[in-house]
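Suppose a colleague, Dr. K., hands you the sequence of a protein chain of 247 amino acids and asks what its three-dimensional shape might be. Before reaching for any lab equipment, you can write down a predicted structure in token form. Begin with the sequence itself:
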Amino acid sequence: MKKIILTFIAALGLAAGAAHAAGGSTMAWDKAPNKTNDLPALQNGAKLFVNYCVGCHSAAFMRYNRLTDIGLTEQQIKDNLLLTTDKIGETMKANIDPKQAKEWFGANPPDLTVIARSRAGHGGTGADYLYTFLRSFYLDEAKATGWNNLLFPNVGMPHALWELQGTRHAVFDEKTHAFKGWEQAAPGKLSAQDYDKAVGDLVGYLQWMGEPAQNSRVRIGVGVLIFLAVMTLFAWRLNAAFWKDVK
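The predicted structure, expressed as tokens, is then:
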């Protein structure tokens, strides 16, 4: 009985940890589009990442020249994605001072190299989490940054993509405080559909960055399985031919 109780308590602890990882929200995660094989989408995602994320977040395990794997030339990377002080062989490091970041946001912004892999949970994949998170910001004057997030309540991060999405308020039921919908305060540079597409591109890039060789790994794995299936067929027929006269 004691073991059962301890097991139950441990399970509750794991569930609480999973809820904390998702920002303490029970909000359902939206399904992210799979764009890890879409080179134009990955290239646009890389552009969005450099323009809107690298200012605060590093990707310390990803070098700029690795972007040639998604179809960019080194010259394109130099012309469109590198700051004047960066070099093609350097890693994607944030320009923000860690001490200032902690003062402004309450914590140093995390490295995003493997964020799409680390955020997987009971609600779905890490890509699903990021896709939902980046589409769940709303204005909140009570917060120091002026922003809050439905998926991650009281998050210290401001809405980095607000210029693209525009500003909006979350509408809650006065009695139950349940989320009812969105109220657009000001339009952004993109329509709602185009913004969702841009976020999908960015999340696809974050997925790819977490494991750049994943598509090659899958292709090689499929080839190996086909090879083994063919060899198994040959081995079976050879075995039958070798033993057919043996009684």
